[in-house]
Amino acid sequence: MMDVSPQAAVSEGPFPFVIISHGNSGSHLLYRTISLHLARHGYIVAMPQHYGNNRNDNSLGDKVENLQYRPRHVSMTIDALLANETFGKQIDSDKIAVVGHSFGGYTALALAGGEPWKQVGQPVAVQHDSRIKALVLMAPAAGYFIPVDSLAKVTVPILLLMAEHDPYTPAWNADVVVKGVPDQSQVTLRVIENAGHFSFISPFPPAMQNPGFLPSTDPAGFDREQFHNQLPAEILRFLNNKLWRLALK
């Protein structure tokens, strides 16, 4: 459930703008704790569902087109919202950020200037977007940026959140980001104690929580509900600090 008012008037802006990119074969609805918190605190938030790489259609999941299309989806979302009669005039185009989880982290890095490579060592042509001014990466799939200088053009501030117990995007993914960007001081890294890869997803309703449904599971003893009482506020503080500071330069 999401507590929203679909037909409500939009307050007078301009407001900063955040796009949330979901993980591989995931859903745009999985990060409601983050999206609602940001929206309640002065952000316009968009949650696109990535074509061909979502829970209902994963036909592009293992194809190079997925690596190419995902960043483009986010840029198209920005274009659409800026051109929208209702939201366009309320968005501050100098304060745009991307929040990405897992493969959404790949998407965010590619958008911000990253040059990805396929696992077989071939470069992938992607569309960058200079409108992106900050990134929040949660357990990002950074393995596509291992070659030297792959992240040399990523110069925006980054909040990098990793899970202590993550078999899908383990600790070396953080090293790829921290060591790959040209200015390590731009990266704020925090490892979430006892968290798992899926702990960044908003808590599921009790009826959906079971060991057979991996996105609902966490390492023993980890309290996802409590974590999501803190995570959105941490993201908000980072974005407030970085986006407004950049605007003053």
From TrEMBL:
Keywords (A to Z) from UniProt: Hydrolase, Lipid degradation, Lipid metabolism
Pfam families xrefs: Chlorophyllase
Single GO MF annotation: hydrolase activity
Superkingdom per UniProt: Bacteria
Signal peptide: none
Gene3D superfamilies per record: alpha/beta hydrolase
Ranges that cross the membrane: none
PANTHER family attached to this UniProt entry: PLATELET-ACTIVATING FACTOR ACETYLHYDROLASE
Name this protein carries in UniProt: Dienelactone hydrolase
Organism in which the protein naturally occurs: Nibrella saemangeumensis
